[in-house]
Amino acid sequence: MTGLPAGATTTSAAPEKRPAALQLADVSVVRGGRTVWSDGTFSVPAGAVVGVIGPNGAGKTTLFQLALGLLPAASGRVEVLGAPPRRGNRRIGYVPQNYTAALGDAIRCRDLVTLGLTGGRFGLRPTSAAERARVDGVLRRVGAYDFADRRMSELSGGQQQRVAIAQAIVDDAELLLLDEPLANLDLRNQQEIVRLLGDLHRDRDVTIMIVAHDLNPLLPVLTEAIYLLDGHPHHDPITDVVQEELLTHLYGTPVGVVRTAQGDLFTRAAWRDPQR
Amino acid sequence: MSALAGVQFQSNWLDVLRSPFMQHALIGGSMVAVAAGLLGYFVITRQNAFAAHALAHIGFPGATGAILVGAPVTLGLAVFCVGGGLLIGLFGRRVADREMATGTILALATALGVLFASLASANASTTTSVLFGNLLAISDDQLMVYGAFTVAVVGTLAVLARPLLFASVDPAVAEARGVPVRALGLAFVVLLALTITMAVQVVGTLLLFALVVTPAATALRITARPARVAVIAVTLALAAVWGGLVLSAMVDLPPSFFIVSLAVFAWVVVLAVVGRRRNRPAETLVDAHHPHRPAHA
Known about the structure:
The complex is a heterodimer of chains A (276) and B (297).
Chain A: E1 22-31, E2 34-44, E3 49-53, H1 60-67, E4 75-80, E5 92-95, H2 99-102, H3 109-118, H4 129-141, H5 157-169, E6 175-179, H6 187-204, E7 207-211, E8 224-229, E9 232-237, H7 238-241, H8 244-251, E10 255-260, E11 263-268
Parallel strand pairs in A: 3-7, 3-8, 5-6, 6-7
Antiparallel strand pairs in A: 1-2, 1-4, 8-9, 10-11
Helix pairs in contact in A: 3-4, 3-5, 4-5, 5-6
Chain B: H1 13-18, H2 20-45, H3 49-69, H4 73-90, H5 95-119, H6 124-132, H7 140-169, H8 171-176, H9 181-203, H10 209-212, H11 214-222, H12 226-251, H13 255-274, E1 286-287, E2 290-294
Antiparallel strand pairs in B: 1-2
C-alpha cells in the first residue's frame, strides 16, 4: 500500500550535506541542582540508529528531554536536525517510557495516532480525508491497521508499542526518540518491534535513538551507541561498544560477549566472575 | 402507617410540568446536562473523577458562606469551586499527590461549610438544598447566569477539545509536541468548576457525581469514539434530567433522586449488556503482560 506521502522527509539536498540529527558541544545538564552529566560532545549523523545505554539514573531520558526542548542545557551548545532544540518540534517523533501504561481505556488506537497529527490544533475543524488517509497509511505501515478501532487498553504490549510508534511517525518525523520501547515485551514481540524499527529506518531514512536497558535485542539494527558512563556521554560505533571490558565497566558487573554467525550477543559472564 | 403512604400519583402532573417553576427547571437542568455530559468525558480521560467529586464539596462552604455574608449562592459556589480547582491544580502532577491534596482540601471545605452554616444560622432547608439540589427553585436571574456559564463552557470546549484530549490521554507526548499541557489543565479546572456550580443547584453537592461523571462513563462503555461519546453522554444526561423532572411532577418528590437514579440505572444497564466484552487482548498467541496465560482462556 502506498498510503504514505512517500519521500516527504527526504528533500532533494545531497545526502552528505544533511545536518547531524543531534549534535552536542560541551553540554552539561543540571536537574534539581544536581549535574546529571557533563562534557557531552558528540554528533549523531542523520540516518543513524543509536542505542542509548547506561545505568539507572545516568540521564538517558534526560538526553531525550534535551533534544525535545523540554529541558535546557546548563552549558554548551545543542543542535537538533540543524537547529536549536525547541518544544513542539514536529520533525521529532517521541515515544516516552511506560507510554502505554498511562493510557486508559477511553481512547481508540486510531484516535491516538490521529492526535499525533492534529492534537495541537485548536478549534473544531474536523479531521480531513487526507489526514485520515495518512493515519490509515501509517497504521498499515506498523501493522496496527487490523486493531486500529480497538481501545488501547484492549491490546497487548506489542500492539500498543506499534500504535505508539505509528503516532510518533505519522507526522513524518525525521528523528525518532524511543524510551525503553522493548520493556515488558516478550521475546517475539521484542523481535517484531526491532524488525519494524529496522524497516522504518531503511524505508523512511529516519534517524532513530533508542533508550534501552538491554542492547541485545537491538544489536541487529544499531549502527552506534551513546553510553553514559562516569557522568559523561560517550558516542561510538556499535562494534566498539560491544566489548567485554567496556560493557563490564558500564554495567558494573562482569559481561561476556559471544560472537556468532547470527550476530553478537552479550551476557552476564558468571563463569568469569572473579569473585567465584 | 408507612411514610410511603404519602407518595401519591399526581393526576395533574402535566399541568405541573407546564408551570413556570418547572419550565425554569427544564431549561436550567438541560443547560447543566449539556455542559456536564461534555465535560464528563474529559474528567474520565484525565482520571480526574475524584477531583470532580471534591470540587462539588468545596462548593458547599461557598454556598453557606454566601448565605452568611448575604451574597448570591451561585457567586459563592463559583468562587469556591474555581478557587478550589486551581488549588488542586497547583498540587503535584502525580496522581498520588493529587489524591492526597484533594482529599485534604475536601475535608477542610466540608468543615468550613458546617461552620458557615452554623454561623449564618441557615435553616435546615437551605443546607439541604445545597447538599441535595433544589432544581425547582431556579430563578430568572440564575437562568441568565447558567446560560452564560453554559455558553462559556461549551464554547471554550469547542476551541480546546483536540489539544485538551491530547493533553488528557497522552500528556508526555503532548508536551513534547508543544501542547500547553499545564495551561490546558488549569482551563479545564475552571470549566469544571463552572459546570459544578450549576450542577449543585440541580442535584446538590452530594449527588453531583452521577450527573457530571456517570453519563460520560456510561457512554464510554458503549463507544470510545470521542464525538459519539459526547453525543451519547449529553443525551443520557438530558434524559436523566427530563425524566427526573417528569417523575418528580408525577409523584411530587424531589427531582434529585429521580435524576440520579435514572443516570445510575442507564450505567448499570449498559455495564450489564456490554461491560463483559471489554479488556480482552486481541493477540491470539500470547498476551505480553501475562505471557503464561493464553489470551483467550
